[in-house]
Bestrophin
Amino acid sequence: MIVRPPQHWFRRLFDWRGSVLPNILFRLSLNFMMAVAAVISFPWYERLSLRLTTAPFSLLGVAIAIFLGFRNNASYARFVEARQLWGNLLITERSLLRQAKSLALAPAARQSFTALLVAFAWALKHQLRQTAPREYLERHLPARDRAEILASPLAANRILLALGRWLGEQRQQGALSDMLYTGMDRNLDELSHILGGCERIATTPIPFAYSLILHRTVYLFCTLLPFALVEDLRYMTPLVSVFISYTFLSLESLAEELEDPFGTAANDLPLDALCNTIEINLKEMDDQSPLPEKHQPDAHFNLT
Amino acid sequence: MIVRPPQHWFRRLFDWRGSVLPNILFRLSLNFMMAVAAVISFPWYERLSLRLTTAPFSLLGVAIAIFLGFRNNASYARFVEARQLWGNLLITERSLLRQAKSLALAPAARQSFTALLVAFAWALKHQLRQTAPREYLERHLPARDRAEILASPLAANRILLALGRWLGEQRQQGALSDMLYTGMDRNLDELSHILGGCERIATTPIPFAYSLILHRTVYLFCTLLPFALVEDLRYMTPLVSVFISYTFLSLESLAEELEDPFGTAANDLPLDALCNTIEINLKEMDDQSPLPEKHQPDAHFNLT
Amino acid sequence: MIVRPPQHWFRRLFDWRGSVLPNILFRLSLNFMMAVAAVISFPWYERLSLRLTTAPFSLLGVAIAIFLGFRNNASYARFVEARQLWGNLLITERSLLRQAKSLALAPAARQSFTALLVAFAWALKHQLRQTAPREYLERHLPARDRAEILASPLAANRILLALGRWLGEQRQQGALSDMLYTGMDRNLDELSHILGGCERIATTPIPFAYSLILHRTVYLFCTLLPFALVEDLRYMTPLVSVFISYTFLSLESLAEELEDPFGTAANDLPLDALCNTIEINLKEMDDQSPLPEKHQPDAHFNLT
Amino acid sequence: MIVRPPQHWFRRLFDWRGSVLPNILFRLSLNFMMAVAAVISFPWYERLSLRLTTAPFSLLGVAIAIFLGFRNNASYARFVEARQLWGNLLITERSLLRQAKSLALAPAARQSFTALLVAFAWALKHQLRQTAPREYLERHLPARDRAEILASPLAANRILLALGRWLGEQRQQGALSDMLYTGMDRNLDELSHILGGCERIATTPIPFAYSLILHRTVYLFCTLLPFALVEDLRYMTPLVSVFISYTFLSLESLAEELEDPFGTAANDLPLDALCNTIEINLKEMDDQSPLPEKHQPDAHFNLT
Amino acid sequence: MIVRPPQHWFRRLFDWRGSVLPNILFRLSLNFMMAVAAVISFPWYERLSLRLTTAPFSLLGVAIAIFLGFRNNASYARFVEARQLWGNLLITERSLLRQAKSLALAPAARQSFTALLVAFAWALKHQLRQTAPREYLERHLPARDRAEILASPLAANRILLALGRWLGEQRQQGALSDMLYTGMDRNLDELSHILGGCERIATTPIPFAYSLILHRTVYLFCTLLPFALVEDLRYMTPLVSVFISYTFLSLESLAEELEDPFGTAANDLPLDALCNTIEINLKEMDDQSPLPEKHQPDAHFNLT
């Protein structure tokens, strides 16, 4: 994710960080060349009575803008939901640890609990980005749960199971009454919802046909546009044509990027930083020290 | 559901998987022929002072685009809700099994419980696709519940009843206090919500009049369009006309497809794969082995 | 509600079931006559330099389409919420009966409970459609609650009170601990939400001014439209004008119809069939037989 | 709130009840005079080559329509949320009284409870409309809570506190176990949400800048519009210009009205009638008689 | 936040409070100068056949309006959610104190509890506005929690921890049964959600690329617009061009302002006043006196 630096409105016109320009630069250049071709071929093209006028393109442009608005809404809703799920992860894990402290559970037990909670966040991150969590888990998991979790193909869910077992043991040892057990178990159910919600976003994209239809229509629209504009605009065709194409292509490209918010593109969620925040919060609450260092955006204001 | 392969933006222009093109190809051809007819008949047609101009079609096109945007929103919302319900199915069943393990219920009892949970998902799938679940249920249901469930016309709901009875028996045998019973029973209520939510989506379509009105207006619009464009565009009429028609017809067709997300069309939910995921997850949690194989998309990237 | 039969896209163009055409036929005919008048009077009308052009109507048409989109959203949201409330009614009543069975309450008591639950659905239907529930209630209510419920001006709420009393008695007789009582009572609260939610939709329409403003602007727009189109379109004016009017009037009319989803128009909710479904489900769960017959759509695919 | 009478589509064109026409009549007259001025001054105005054409106004009109759609959405969402909160008030108070009856609490205690619940609704109404609740409260509050509640600057919240104390006393007297107490207390939390939600809507308007920007642009747009239309429409300018202005001004005015749904304008919520409904419902449940009379709309179909 | 004074529609046209005009005045002046340049250079500019017409700008303007509508929706949703979280803060803290009073906990304990609740609100405000809470906390925190909370880098979360400890102690001292403890602890979970929700809004802006794309396209659009309008409008170009630019720039600027609702700009949330309201409410409930004074808007109707 790109961190937004405070800046003047003018400088922002030329800001390239977080921009989708690199993704669409090639297509914009193509569009520019089409526009130049349109300007050059205009005399011949008119003689063949092959005319394109702006009227149908205006209708088409507005229709595409409406559908693109719909697509942006759908993609952005996924981004927002993904962020909310990670926000809830921090919230729920803080709640669980607060409960463990309020109920004065044994400090040693509480520390394994904290370790499992932190590991759950990291394991979820690895699962969503399809990277291997082994290295992290080997170092940080409590000894008794380690083997079982590392052996499982579904590590995050196994950690949740271990959290449940920890809670069940507290109950069997009499540290928690059934009532208190149930109060904390409800927060484990919440973790289950977070895990399942993230998996749902990661595995079920917006129906592929939406991408296809919009990708094609936007592309074809931008390609034909210069030929429609050239009659009115002549030498201004390349400028206006590239401008209109930039508007449509960049929003289409951004919608595509946000659709999968767990990726590592510039506008995706900074899962590493979020895990780091969770770890700092929980360890601070558990009075551990020193705390891990806070992740900072790199020189390009990028936070992974 | 079509699984989206990583691919270049250019290749996507010619990607036919998951496309709704087959559904609208006939109507697009009709439109092309109308456009050719419009070009050919133009001289006569003008002499009769039967004129169609783009201005009213522009107004109409934008209005239809707005209503189509509304219809796509409504259809997509049904798709998303259906997916969320199936996501919640996985989440809730994992929570229930986690609770059963945390509370150290007897392994034999836990296995019947797992079998019932898995059967619930498959029975729901069969109910939503209106196929017969008998074969599956005969093989996988615990012996004592089998006859009763197979005899019922509402199999999924009967399985939920059997899950409730299982829970009640645990309470009567003293394995669960009233408090713990209630904590798990709340998750059965959640299963009840999932079942009822899916039934609602399956049995109540978007009011039929919306489909009718949009279907007719889109169709008539596309049919008349070439006659309006021909005055300005002459020989370019077929190209532009088919392009505009493609945009409107494909979105109308996709909205129709997504409206019933439990079907087996290319953009519908992969209920088989979702049931398979649930089965793998629960059996893995219950330490059963070997686990069922994970469903893979077929050669056309299709997942049923 | 109109049940959608599987059908070919072509046949749907001429499908009249569920259509709002009958409601707007008179206004469409008026519009057609205005269009003919516009064509006939065009020469005079031009001489008086009373000109109407498409440009301002295009602006107005798009603005009205946007506001109509807003109105359709609002109406459809009411329809969806109403359907969800009735879905939750089925869900919650199934949950309550499942709980009663799991907790092994006395069969006789369970049967009165089932009867009350079914009666609640029918009484709610009668209340929303403002019909008299007396006949049904006299036949199906448990004897001891009958007099009290029939005497009340708020029958559905009284049945809910009777359900609460039934639950309180189970607790006093020791069949339910306070914990189990509370677990079931929460589902009665849910019934209370359903009752109140339906009452809210039935008694509070979308602010009347929205209907007025859109009704008037759509109507005036359609009336003036032919005079604006005639300059460009001449003899095609009636066709295009009726087409545009159809699009606007039918969506306005449908929005009006959906706004009150508990009515008996073609696109309203099939409350009879929903009550019937609830009755079948609960009686099947309670192992009663024979089950009531399932309501089927009539010859016009209409389900009340 | 205006109650919608059943009526024919034609009569509705001339229905003034609930209309926002009175609010915008002056501005419409101004617009009419501007249009007349535009028609009269057209010859001079053209000679000075001060031209306004419809094209930029078309663009501007559509943009304003889109932003007005957004503003209507935001205002209507506030109206809907306010109505839902008052719906929940009825729902929750009915649930609380049902619980009190199911648990067979002493009738005398139940009557004070009912009185407090009814008073809560009326006090909330007075707070939202910034009127003095003293008179009502003096007559209806239970004697022991009266002084304390009347002395408080936050009456509704004090009544909620009294409800909590009542519940706490039932627990201390042994009439409610901790479990049952908690079950009812959860509904008091719900009342707390209703109180806070209404306060939020009443004290935090939509950001003022939205009103300002739209108010200004709509106004300026309507003022300049006749000068843009006159070239094309000549003597029809006043008619079309007033029509377009009516569409924009009436929706802007209605959005302003709905933004504060607790006022006493024609389209605001009928808080008096809602309080009356709550009072009738609770007293009927508590078997009191005679019940208060039901508020009826006045001769102008207005319900306050 | 600007408090809206009751005022006439005419005066509002010239109301500068809460307006975003100051932010965009420079850009509007630039636009005015471009328009003057366009008018002056028009003869040369035409001779070079460098033509810009309104048609492509109309298409572009509508597309940008649609995307701007989307951006305003997203920003406003953040504003609304932020306000709801602060509304819930008041609601939940009132509920917690009501519970403490109903359960007749010791007055001294209740006072520390009240102090912690009030401090939580102020600490959250300081965290969101990135100011130092030390001064306030030193004066108002209960002595025993002070050192620990002041030492923590995450003050608000530490106060929540102290609230949890307070609750745990009440349970250990026998003042609260496990059931009652859990009932209150659920409201602490709610505070945890409020804290996490505010942090989420404060740390995760709308993806930066949206701002960039819209900022650039709006800016470029406004810059080129006069050159497109000049052919039609001549000397009216500056007026119309500045008007259109005002509409687009002001909405873009407001969307930017609302995106971060915790700031101190004119349209942001009045966090000081909200904390003050919470403090008055809680102290009034706790029968403390004198109550703090209610914050009033300053002479410019501004409430911080």
About this structure: DSSP finds eleven helices and no strands in chain D. The mean pLDDT of chain D is 90.
